[in-house]
Write the structure tokens for this entry.
Amino acid sequence: MRLLELGIRSFKGVASLDLPLGGRDATIYGANATGKTTVVDAYLWLLFGRDSANRADFAVKTLDPTGNAIPNLDHEVRAVISLDDGRTVTLK
């Protein structure tokens, strides 16, 4: 199994992120509080319904500066995966 693409919309404060991986390995790095763990949380949530701390009850909604969920945002994580048998599936 190889991850071809990962797309995130309105997930834990990430407005929009598209990672075209093409099945290659990737390293995500940056300063603290810039969204590195959020990318991992999005992928794990899509596959297993849990975050990187193995919590199923974590908040995926984007919050405003006062800590309240912003209404009317569609939260989405999408992955395009190439399976070992050559098929490609899209999970959303």
Q: What stands out?
A: The mean pLDDT is 92. The two ends are 17 Å apart (CA to CA). Residues 9 and 16 are 5 Å apart (CA to CA). The beta strands are 2-11, 14-20, 76-82, 88-91.
